[in-house]
Amino acid sequence: MIENRKYVMIRTKEVVLPFGCSKVPQVFDEEDELLLIQAVKENKEIAFVKNDLDGLAEFGCLAKVSSYDYDHSFAKGVHTEFGGINQDLQSSGHAMIPMYKKSDLLECIRNKQLENQQFSDISEVEFLLLDRISVTATLDEIIINVQKDTEEKYNKNNLGKLSNIIFENIFEPLSFDCIHSLSFYALTRLMKGCSAKNDQFKKTFLKSNSENLRVKSIISLYEKGLLR
């Protein structure tokens, strides 16, 4: 682990993508796990960055501790507030992925005091995966830069196609996600395993701040059979 001014950096074995809630990703080694536990206890903001053979990958994401207990988690709060709306839509025959504007969700998260409970095992910790970041290294230090996404208007036809791909291929409960990173959500779950090719796909997505382009790319890759 490397401290970088206001962030604590943890090396992981795979590319960790924003945005939403997540359990602890697979860290690089035992040393990183011990230091991660300490960072969690101190409620620090954490940068998860994949460790490549040649060092740190170019991209990662920032994470903030949400809770050690789902009953006190931000995710449960969102599910409680919006779950009824989703149930009403589904009972009326309408499928819906819970989606929220990233800017609104970030503002809510950063203004909320999260009630962290003591944990007995690191696997109990839940993180909020926030902004995507790029990492640059010099001889003296490693610098983390937050990559700002842009809010866009969406092509409803393409969004509908992506939603159909998700509903037809992802057989697991949908966790809350924001509309701006729906493509990250889909890509991570449609790709099987953690091959170098899959990681490269994810990094390519992280380089783009156009959600419309990401959505079009997933539809195209899926229709060509490259995600199956």
Radius of gyration: 18 Å
- Roughly how many Å apart are the termini? 35 Å
Mean pLDDT: 78
User: Treating each run of at least 4 consecutive H or I residues as one helix, how many helices?
Assistant: 7
Spatial shape: globular
Oligomer: single chain
Helix content: 25-40%
The profile of the biggest β sheet is:
7 strands, mixed
Tally of extended strands? 7
Low-confidence stretches: none
- What fraction strand? 15-25%
Structural class: alpha+beta
Sketch the topology as an H/E string, one letter per element.
EEEHEEHHEEHHHH
Give the topology, please.
Elements (H helix, E strand, L loop, with lengths): L1 E3 L2 E6 L7 E4 L6 H12 L4 E7 L2 E13 L6 H18 L10 H9 L15 E12 L4 E6 L8 H14 L12 H9 L5 H12 L3 H13 L5
Parallel strand pairs: 2-4
Antiparallel strand pairs: 1-2, 3-6, 4-5, 5-6, 6-7
Helix pairs in contact: 4-7, 5-7
